Task: structure prediction
Amino acid sequence: MPNALGVPSPDKAAYMDDVARAAVGYKRQMLTLLELEPGLTVLDLGCGPGADIQSMADAVTTSGRVVGVDIDPRMVEAASARFHDHPHVEIRLGDGHTLPFEDATFDRARMDRALQHVADPAVVLSELLRVLKPGGLLRVGEPDWDSLTVDGDLEMNRAFNRFVCSTMVRNATIGRRLARLARGAGFEVQVVRTASPVFHDFALADNIFAFTRNTERAIRAGAIDRADGERWLAELQSGDFLAAPLVFLLSARKPL
Ligand SMILES: C[S@@+](CC[C@H](N)C(=O)[O-])C[C@H]1O[C@@H](n2cnc3c(N)ncnc32)[C@H](O)[C@@H]1O
Result:
């Protein structure tokens, strides 16, 4: 579980909305891959405050249905407030390990950066297989935090990634394991793609990747020397900035 080490975290719903605004191209790619059409029933597991639900609801129209599920009551409250007047959108509190749906309920299922946080990704993928109809499509987008690339001191980039992977994110390298896990759960893997949004604005990237917050946590945990950490943060803010995360996009199908 994330270890805050006394460093405050931002409001979770606002953070997810910020990410959605900063990663519009990636979000559009995820939507296109879902191959939505009017009348389809879609599950968004780990929906957060519902950043992607409006576009999915528009695509399936009122003849279809979008169901957002999240384990965090604050996310369910935020998403429910947004979509209370959309009869074909339903937001539910639920855990991906035990989904509250009958077998073969959905035509499509998606997770966007949520599998990285669950206790057992294999169980969650088995649940997604169960609730999809035969031939139903699964789309999952997950980062690989060992591959976050930052222009500047390479050793500090590596030390930062090591700390995030060991301490901050439960399944930090889930992205590279998606195809293997999906096959293990019984899916046919169609294709794995990558997406790497490039950030040039330090303040924006810092909000999303928590360079300042996580470097401070790594310093407090003894994983990074304070002088090295502070020098690195100053370097990142001093001139040309570039950071790019590696995100894997899995396209898979439930066998007929
Ligand atoms: C990084 S956020 C992504 C939210 C949203 N998919 C988006 O793209 O904005 C991950 C979400 O997964 C949810 N989550 C984590 N574990 C879960 C679980 N076991 N079942 C359902 N949701 C879960 C979290 O509460 C959080 O809202």
About this structure: The chain has one domain: 12-253. The first helix runs from residue 12 to 22.
